[in-house]
Amino acid sequence: MSVEQYLIKVQPYYRSVGNEVELYEAAYSARMPVMLKGPTGCGKSRFVEYMAWKLKKPLITVACNEDMTASDLVGRFLLDASGTKWHDGPLTVAARSGAICYLDEIVEARQDTTVVIHPLTDHRRQLPLEKKGELVNAHADFQLVISYNPGYQSLMKDLKQSTKQRFGAIDFDYPNADVESEIVMHETKVDKATADKLVQIAHRARNLKGHGLDEGISTRLLAYAGALIANTQTATKQATANAETTLMLNPPVGD
Ligand code: ADP
Fold first, then answer.
1. Does ligand 1 have an atom closer than 6 angstroms to the CB of 39?
2. Ligand 1 in contact with 37 (CB < 6 A)?
3. 166 CA to middle of ligand 1, Å?
4. Given this model, what pLDDT does residue 239 score?
5. Is the C-beta atom of 18 inside 6 A of ligand 1?
């Protein structure tokens, strides 16, 4: 499998909100594992895509879930016509080829799965493939990035301290109103008045967090709402234009 396919060729739109770009660059130059910490839909995944593009490194993203096993990350033997063959998992591909491996919502994975990343996150930078009997030394460009939403975790489902402390954390939150409005306009092409109104609603709803709402309205949801509004506006304009053309071609005949 060629790692070239994981290179991001077109610059992703990312509006920086603080010094996160500089922080990440510093972490990458030390090849420090990074934890992007913050609520869902606040731009963590977009940020890592942008950084991979900026650093010209391939990005391999794994959306973690509770059914995920260590083999889904590191690889497994599979049977084909010529017998059993080892297939590297996404983490192994990234470690061998020097990609950035982004484990999105790592806390969703079972704790016995997350420990496989430990030897990759300290000075060893190694990945043992126990079933294959191989020790992979990570490529010099390899970096591990995880996302973590602290508000979302229950006590039963949290990262172990021994895992958390292996990462340099960059804190994310929803951007301030002006920046968020700018993002919504860019993502959806709605006008400023509509974007401002959507952001205002989100800010009010976010104040209800912990008072009946588990999670506030995310920037992602605002982008979705904006896209629907923009499409409706286009459809309405189109319908109006169609009606006007029809009227021009067939003017109403008076009595
Ligand atoms: P997360 O990974 O934190 O759950 P995403 O990175 O998927 O969230 O962000 C969700 C959406 O919100 C993105 O697809 C993008 O439209 C928008 N977004 C949020 N923050 C930003 C930002 N700073 N710059 C550009 N787009 C953003």
1. no
2. no
3. 25
4. 75
5. no
**184 with 71, same domain?**
no
Domain ranges, residue 188: 177-248
Degrees (nearest 5) of the Cα angle 190, 193, 196?
90
Distance CA 235, CA 202 (A): 25
In a domain, 253, yes or no: no
Please give the tally of structural domains in the chain. Answer: 2
Whole-number pLDDT of residue 43: 97
Is 117 a member of any domain?
yes
Same domain, 12 and 137: yes
With a 6 Å cutoff on the Cβ, whether 94 touches ligand 1 is no
- Ligand 1 contacts CB of residue 97 (under 6 A): no
Is there an atom of ligand 1 within 6 Å of 105 CB? no
Query: Kind and range of the H or E element at 43?
Result: none
Residue with tokens 């489902």: 157
DSSP 8-state secondary structure symbol assigned to residue 176: P
Ligand 1 closest atom vs CA 16: 23
What pLDDT digit, counting tens, does each position of 85-99 carry?
999 999 999 999 999
Distance 238 CA to ligand 1 centre (A): 30
pLDDT exceeds cutoff 90 at 201: yes
**pLDDT tens readout for residues 147-178:** 998 876 555 577 888 888 899 999 999 999 99
- The pTM of this model reads 0.89
Residue-by-residue DSSP string for 192-214: HHHHHHHHHHHHHHHTTBTTTBS
Indicate the residue among 141, 171, 201 that finishes a domain.
171
